[in-house]
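Researcher: Structure for this, please.
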Amino acid sequence: MKNGMLLSCLVLGALQPAMAGGIFYNSNQSAEYFRTFDRNSAINNADIVYYNMAGTVKLKEGWTFNLSNQSILQWATVETKGNPVVGDRKYESNNPAWVVPNFYAAYRKDNWSLFMGLETIGATAVREWKDGLPTLDLLGKQMAGYGGVDSTIIALDAGAHGQDPVLAGLNSGSYFQSKSYLKGSSYYMAFRHGGAFQFNPYFSVALAGRLVVAQQKIVGSVDSACTYNQYGHDLRNQKRAVIDTTDDATGYSGEIAFNAYPIQGMVLNLTYEMGTSLNFKTTVKDGKDGGGLFTNGKRSHLDLPQAIRFGLGYQVTDDLRLSMGMNAYLEKSVDFGMLDNPLNANDHTKDYKNTYEEQASFEYRLNKTWLVSAGVNFNQIGQAKSSTIDTSVPGAHANYLSIGAGFQYQVSEKVKFNMGVGHTRFTSTYENADVMGDQAIKSTFAAKGVAVNPTKEYNKQYIIIAFGIDYRF
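Model: Predicted structure, token format:
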């Protein structure tokens, strides 16, 4: 096997956003969201600075502040199947993210409002693979000599002693040891500010600007060794590749939103967010480039896509409110060049289509103090299944189902406490045979007359507990 099957890049250390949204876009931005999974048409609480900024003119006059935090329990697995080189095993990542905050403030007077928000938008997450990943383990075996001259020597030795040299060469992986580790972390902090104006009882509009500061950090290592020492051939060696890189980018964009109030108790919302150009620059620390996998100073795009959000809410009775919403993330129209990898036939212009999600919720007021709610979200990811690499965005292709429930407790006329619990999972696990690893192994074995069919199975789920306070004065 040639080094061409090895990594040419690692992206985000196997990260992707938690819960709803697109490939690199979080729509989970408040505790209220997790108890409903639909806030597009909401007109209460200051988290609508993100979800329905044109509705901020419906907040009570004066200042309203909203502060929330999400604690995310997350599990991801990559399981190799039918792999004669690294073996059949399950790689797991289960590290929690305890602090994912959001903050909003809005000031309303008469028929206008001003607002600002600080959000953990984009791929804000941490993912640690303590026992590495299949592609890294394959890289380690090749670093130790598997698939090269050393494997040929082992095959010749076996043939000289009456064994099948073809099988001996193909099955020599047991002499090449590999241990890998990978941790990726990223944050996309967005600061938005803008204003809204209500022209008449039936129509309002809002405009906003947005600054996004993004960073991705990858730390990892691959340790390899050959243990072969027979028939006068001592191939023993130890090698190590270390990764410590950071990618930084800053971008600016704008937003516009419209609200209509056709009848008493009904809200129609349409919000458009422009794409945000993010041209990341790579910094390699102390030469730890993973053996040439990363280039210090290299620039590549991983933009935030345009987003279109629609919401419909209706106050059926004084106590019952129903709502539904739809979101589209136009990933087809932005530059995901950082994800291009010719060695795995990855081309972002072909691998990514738009992502869509649909959501619905209800809220029911038990009394003046307590309100309960629940909601559901269906997410159809636009990434092509064939583009999945375990060291890049594993399982991003899969569709998601999210459910949430919670309550709001009215502490006083000015203070509301919100709690939401959400669960997000793949609608089903899925398998993929990537080009660099699985298909290359299959082709190499087939050339020697041996049939193998290695694949990888991906799965992922999250449990989120969110708390928030909405304060007005």
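Researcher: Any notable elements?
Model: The mean pLDDT is 90. The longest strand covers residues 176-200.
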